[in-house]
Amino acid sequence: MLQDLQLASDEGPVYRRLADAIAERITAGTLAVGDRLPPQREIARALGINVTTVTRALSTLQQRGLLEARPGRGTTVAARNGGEGPGFVSAPSEDTGVIDLSVNRPATSAYLDALALLLPRLSKDRHYVTLQDYHPPEGPLWAREAIAEWMRPAAGDGDPGRVVLAAGAQHGLDCVLGAVTRQGDVVLADEVTYQGINALCRVHGLELRGVAMDRGGMRADAFEAACAQLRPRAVFLVPTLHNPTTITLPEERRHELVAVARHHNVLIIEDDVYRPLADNPPPSLASLEPELTVHIGALSKCVAPGLRLGFVIAPRAIAGQVAAALRINCWSISPLTALIGARLIEEGAAARIIEAQKQELRQRQAIVTEILGRYDVQSHAASTHAWLRLPEPWRGAGFARTCLERGVAVLPGDAFAVGREPVQHGVRINVGAARSLDDLRTALNTMAELLAAGHLQLPGFV
User: Fold this and answer.
1) pLDDT per residue over 149-178, tens digit each?
2) 58-62, 285-289, 456-460: least confident range
3) Which candidate in 155, 210, 256, 365 could, as Cys together with 295 as Cys, close a disulfide (CB 3.0–4.6 Å)?
4) How many CB atoms lie within 10 A of CB 334?
């Protein structure tokens, strides 16, 4: 399997040369999907390198979606959509020499600056003494009151009894699915959508089915047809600054989709984590149909993913079920996280952080327009990402792979596909992830050069 593995003789880091050598065998088919790699110590011994280097190389390949590690199975070659799609990447690459635009991260240090001012004062806070205690599964009441009031214009009408705190939106979504679905239920989503729903539906034994969309988002007629044919339990929507396409559902489209859900009694799961970044977004789905919508939000995209504070706003009966699922999952979230989030919101720091992020993102999106504007790029002035539809002859996975070889990491459309149906040939560009404006320019110029050349003109591609 890895016999006679030869590392490139260049001066790059050993872990990266090892990762590239294994990746070549996967691409060539020498290593097939499901093949189990030898233990890391055996690989290290055979190559005369240390185990830490092997560990880092395999971790790099997991980030690329080529390998997966599961308890009891070791490290195996990952299945890829259509034979070439990447896995679920959740943290920025630490590879030196790579500008990683594949994962959302804050565009500024505004959160860290605010946190540095807040932390010395926390021990004087009236809720500080409760940090050593257990808390209700839905979270401390004082934190839920802060979230409920902050979200009053969008969902929940300021009622903390409808709020359940979670360790990020993904955790909240996990608990929602655990509370409202049963194994075998059908869940609908856009045909191209946030990766996390794919992973969670597999874990919960749910059948995720894609619904056709246009440049205005999910088509109401396609949603109607899917409801009539599949009798789904729920529909998952990212209505504002959609991930990955940046589409914001127009208000008329929102009313149409809500009407279909109401007619077929389909629960709406509204993942609206990007809403705080949008200027004057349309009414939330939860405000249009509060008794049939579970609204999920977080501070991850607008403040900082490292804070790990998300929330679910739902009808009281469903909120109770979500809290019960969360209790089984982790009992309750960290009260320290809740206290930090509540103070940032109540003292106005969260609003200032969001405004700083938006100002920086506007600059970055302007650079995207400047460099890639002649291509089919869909974006928004304050979005964390942009969606590039690729011209012929590029395909999403091939373009992403070539970008990575040139030192730029992006995620192809395959990563966001629901099922195995053909997907748009595009890539998501996380503009906030670049460490600087100069890095962003460098990465986008690299992409522009590849787009202009066409991969058929590049060596090593067929």
Assistant:
1) 999 999 999 999 999 999 999 999 999 999
2) 456-460
3) 155
4) 16
Half-sphere exposure of 436 (CA within 13 A, CB side): 3
Listed in sequence order, the residues at least 6 apart from 413 whose beta carbon sits closer than 8 Å to its beta carbon are: 192, 244, 396, 423, 424, 425, 426, 427, 428
Q: Of 334, 299, 311, nearest to 130 (Cα)?
A: 334
Find the length of the chain.
462
The CA distances from residue 295 to 249, 273, 274, 284, 314, in Å, are 15, 9, 12, 9, 6
Q: In a 3-state reduction of DSSP, which class is residue 313? A: strand
Bridge partners of residue 411, in order along the sequence: 428
CB–CB of 47/22 below 8 Å?
Answer: no
Q: What whole-number distance in Å separates Cα of residue 455 and Cα of residue 412? A: 15
425-437: pLDDT as tens digits: 899 999 999 999 9
3-class DSSP state of 446: helix
In angstroms, the CA 333 to CA 350 distance is: 20
Q: Is 241 helix (H, G, I), strand (E, B) or coil?
A: coil
Token pair listed for 197: 């729903």
* Residue among 313, 252, 254 at smallest CA distance from 284: 254
The token pair at 78 is 């990952």
Q: Pick from 60, 113, 109: which is nearest to 436 by CA?
A: 109
Could you give the CA distance from residue 254 to residue 217 in angstroms, rounded to a whole number?
Answer: 10
10 Å CB burial of residue 232 (0-12, 13-18, 19+) is: buried
Does the reported pTM lie above 0.85?
A: no
The secondary structure of residue 391, as a DSSP letter, is P
Q: Which of 1, 15, 93 is nearest to 51 (CA)?
A: 15
Nearest CA among 205, 123, 96, 149 for reference residue 348: 149
Q: Are 418 and 193 in contact (CB under 8 A)?
A: yes
Query: Does residue 156 contact residue 295 with C-beta atoms inside 8 Å?
Result: yes
How far is 395 from 461, CA to CA, in rounded Å? 12
Tokens describing residue 355? 């405004």
CA separation for the pair 314, 163 (Å, rounded): 7
Looking at residue 90, its pLDDT comes to 54
